[in-house]
Specification:
Helix content is about 65%, strand content about 10%. By secondary structure, it is mainly α. It has a domain of about 170 residues.
Length: about 260
Amino acid sequence: MDRVFISIGNINIYWYSVLIIIGIIIGYILVKKEAKRQNIDNNFLENLIFYMVIIGIIGARLYYVIFNYQNFDSLLSIFAIYEGGLAIYGGIIAAIIFIYFYSKKYKQNFLQLLDLFAPSLILAQAIGRWGNFFNHEAYGGIVSYEFLTNLHLPNFIIENMYINGNYHHPTFLYESIFCLIGFIIMMVFRYKKNTKIGTLTITYLIYYGIIRFFIEGLRTDSLYFLGFRISQIVSIIFILIGILILVKRRITWKKK
């Protein structure tokens, strides 16, 4: 598959960028709709989203560059995000930190804001993973052609997983599907009566942490630190934080 979406003169617009933008737009629409339902101030929300998207992208790139610095031969290449190289965990961590301080500044409920963004985030991830498909990245170890056909995958996916003379696990697809399932689960929670504040955040941290831990184990392009896959370490941290919040929130819920 050609990773260029469209060429305008000497300028190439890549599928990777297009899909990230689509994910952001759809996420934005969902957040705005839910924020209106919760009577969250529109000006506050617009400013939060504007800065959060920028900081999230910067965080995603910095995370990737820090743990993959040996592949950058010049300072300018660090800014070539259209070539790929955004680590979602970096973006999530940067965005969460920003939301925390922003919520404190304007005296808003931190967990409520995280709940607001969680379903949109995981849906955007489901969409964004297809950018990895077009970039021929985020794939797994070698498998047979028969393995892929037994998964009943469309031929265009199977053929795009033929890389460097071998077929590979379409780990981008695994994660995209599980993220979509996670989105559905969180939307059910969102519109379920008596869902407590923090439920969607807890669900995201634990659910995504688990699926990313196992999918990361299949990938061939993981970033490493001291011999460990960084994303698996972060996944475990996410799961533990989710469990910690769950325990604390259950104590709070019982007191009410």
